[in-house]
């Protein structure tokens, strides 16, 4: 049988519907002309923005209520944007792109109680990214990533002088010498390792809730290819040698600035598993049936013990890991 598989649909945070071409960012006249009809995505310093649920239990807005978030999955979420104010975009605003003739910008902000904002209805990308439509998911992902970069790039890395925004918020230029800084992205690989038949390799970090497992991942080092990183990270984290490394897909993961590049690889389950001390608490080979059972329990839900059977708890649908696991589990 073939050892390969594909993702049947794009990972949720790779979806986008806004035009974000470079010329939009340098066309100041167009930005000013469209400002009066622009919509603003407001994101607070914790990465939250106001949203509207189509149908969700009241408990969904209680911080840390994972079961309520899972119960609301599939109900649909709408990104709530604000109208623009003033004559021009404020300092630090980021042009996210245009859709159907409307320009979308991102700014830092907080709930406006005078305008009727309910702080309890602000949610972050991890919680709502999988429920937003393509436009909303793309806008919020870009807003979180770009605003986080602005927060950490206020001074020039070369001469230490203050920097200011240009090009619709996609460039920061320093006062002293005009050095330019651009948003940074850190590539990381994430790999589903399987045996070419009916088992997949999962692992867990020590800080995760009991029973939570996922696929393996790690950051790409300087001077390293993506494929070499896959082989190195898996060997370092669980002591396994892999072959047949193949690309699956990618998605932004702006926590704070990663790009998750998904791969699959094949390994022999007879190899001993050696979890990296302090980094990997446990690693296990799981059958396709066990994985399907874990997936059927939904996002952030379930119990690690059901009688004498092992039930793995799996990452939520906002992550590319979930997309990879679902695709592999769906194979015959």
From TrEMBL:
Broad EC category: hydrolase
Keywords linked to the UniProt accession: Hydrolase, Magnesium, Metal-binding, NAD
GO cellular component: cytosol
GO molecular function: metal ion binding; NADH pyrophosphatase activity
Pfam families according to UniProt: NUDIX, NUDIX-like, Zn_ribbon_NUD
Domain Nudix hydrolase: 183-308
Hydrolase as UniProt keyword: yes
NAD recorded as keyword: yes
Cofactor(s) the protein needs: Mg(2+); Zn(2+)
UniProt cross-references to InterPro entries, sorted A to Z: NAD-cap_RNA_hydrolase_NudC, NADH_PPase-like_N, NudC-like_C, NUDIX_hydrolase-like_dom_sf, NUDIX_hydrolase_CS, NUDIX_hydrolase_dom, Znr_NADH_PPase
Record's catalysed reaction(s): a 5'-end NAD(+)-phospho-ribonucleoside in mRNA + H2O = a 5'-end phospho-adenosine-phospho-ribonucleoside in mRNA + beta-nicotinamide D-ribonucleotide + 2 H(+)
EC number: 3.6.1.22
GO biological process assignments: NAD+ catabolic process; NADP+ catabolic process
Family in the record: Belongs to the Nudix hydrolase family. NudC subfamily.
Protein known as: NAD(+) diphosphatase
